[in-house]
Amino acid sequence: MLDVGYELIVTRGFTSVGLSELLKTAEVPKGSFYHYFKSKEQFGEAMIQDYFNKYFEQLTARFTNT
User: Fold this and answer.
1) Are 48 and 2 in contact (CB under 8 A)?
2) Do residues 45 and 5 touch, judged by C-beta distance below 8 A?
3) Rounded to the nearest 5 degrees, what angle is found at the Cα of 35, between the Cα atoms of 3 and 27?
4) Rounded Cα distance, 51 and 12, in Å
5) CATH number, domain at 29?
6) Which residues bind DNA (predicted)?
7) Rounded distance, CA 37 to CA 45, Å?
8) What is the domain count for the chain?
9) Measured between alpha carbons, how far is residue 18 from residues 5, 10, 15, 61, 64 in Å?
10) For an engineered disulfide with 4, which of 16, 26, 49, 65 has Cβ 3.0 to 4.6 Å away?
11) Interhelix angle 2-12/40-64, nearest 10 degrees
């Protein structure tokens, strides 16, 4: 769901993507979404955190394998 959200938000912007569209595109039931996130904003925070975690993993791998 984070990857789908990232693709939608990068192309259209966070405020332009509605929760219903995100859930439909990711094929995730609304109840499942709210089990993990309290709001769309919390989802956005998790998405950004996931992005930076992946980025730092790539940096670490690059600099430890040289």
Assistant:
1) no
2) no
3) 45
4) 17
5) 1.10.357.10
6) 18-37
7) 10
8) 1
9) 10, 13, 7, 35, 40
10) 26
11) 100
Whole-angstrom distance, CA of residue 43 vs CA of residue 5: 9
C-beta separation of 30 from 23 below 8 A = yes
User: What is residue 66's predicted lDDT score, i.e. its pLDDT?
Assistant: 58
Cβ pair 21, 8 in contact under 8 A:
yes
Whether the model pTM is above 0.90: no
pLDDT digits (tens, 9 = 90+) for 18-65: 999 999 999 999 999 999 999 999 999 999 999 999 999 999 999 987
